[in-house]
Amino acid sequence: MKKILALVLVAAMLVLGLAACGSANTDDGSDAAGAIKIGGTGPLTGGAAIYGTAVKNGAQIAVDEINALGGLQFELRYEDDVHDPEKAVTAYNTLKDWGMQISLGSVTSKPAVATSAEAANDHIFYLTPSASSTDVIGGVANPLTGTVEIDRKANVFQLCFVDPNQGAASANYIAEKELGTKVAVIYKNDDVYSTGIYNSFKTEAEKLKIDVVSVTTFTDDTSTDFSVQIAEAKKAGADLVFLPMYYEAASQILIQADAAGYAPTWFGVDGMDGILTLDGFDTKLAEGVILLTPFNADSEDETTAKFVATYKEKFGEVPNQFAADAYDSVWAIYNAIKDEDVSAKTSASDFCDLLMEKFTSEDFSYDGITGDGMTWDDTGAVTKAPKGMVIKDGAYVGLD
Predict the structure, then answer these.
(1) What pTM, to 2 d.p., does this model score?
(2) Residue 12 confidence (pLDDT)
(3) Topology of domain 33-161+301-385, CATH
(4) In the chain, count of helices (H) and strands (E)?
């Protein structure tokens, strides 16, 4: 009898242990056994970590808010890709083994080009918040029109502006606001993000008859010394310098231009967002920098104000547009599936079919903190309007 009793007790303990494992809660408050698994890769360490961390944090706030509503539950997981395509593919495969049903893709363009190809082969719906190269969605930008041809990975979408849109919008903004009479450009010629924006800027600038007096480039290997580029822009008399690049290289240009006594108007794109939180950078050097971005953290819009307050409370800083785009990405996915017959048991392939149909439907749009009435067409690119911002007193301030 003692042996039988002992066996019964052991069996009971095993049942209780299995039940406890089955009902374990995740960090985001969702029931892991009943949550739809959303995954993404991004640089959580290394030089581009500001972007990856912001995207992860913004997405997590959205997941927390959605889970608090009850009903559909999400579980979010991000893997570090260190802004490296090969590491990104490894990270993507880790997420696939975990059971990822929907992908937030990769944060930056080079890794996203690699992981979007994997997702296309696996038929997993892929919505990147921030990787803006047209190579991510698989389209090819027409150099004459700046449009994206419909020859693409059909399950891959972007919530950020695609590079051609940013370049053309920048040229139009500079011309419309009469920000410079002579324009110089410095861009990174071994980066799909930077070259994509520059090429469309060049095309639009020629149409608008913007006087581009200097165009210089750099690469990964030459991204610490910008003396030649600065000297050429200064010699050409450029009173505005367009910087289609990420904030790290831009910060070095601002530092070295200041040392050279060169103070034009600096104009950037969404990759500049994050320069104010770069370790060791004197933010006074960024005073007056203008950039186009979809997000204004100073907006009085109720949803934006709530997001900013939550982000500051959780992470101790003002969110950038990468965090905002990630927040909108999760909410856009939720809005697309909330009234559908789906659950944590729905396969990744079925989610992919549903979301592809939804996102390209004329009846679907999403109002978010980075744009009202966002829609997607067959190219996978989003339609929304950029906002002009200027750095003033160490903060981003909206422009008319």
Answers:
(1) 0.75
(2) 45
(3) Rossmann fold (3.40.50)
(4) 12, 15
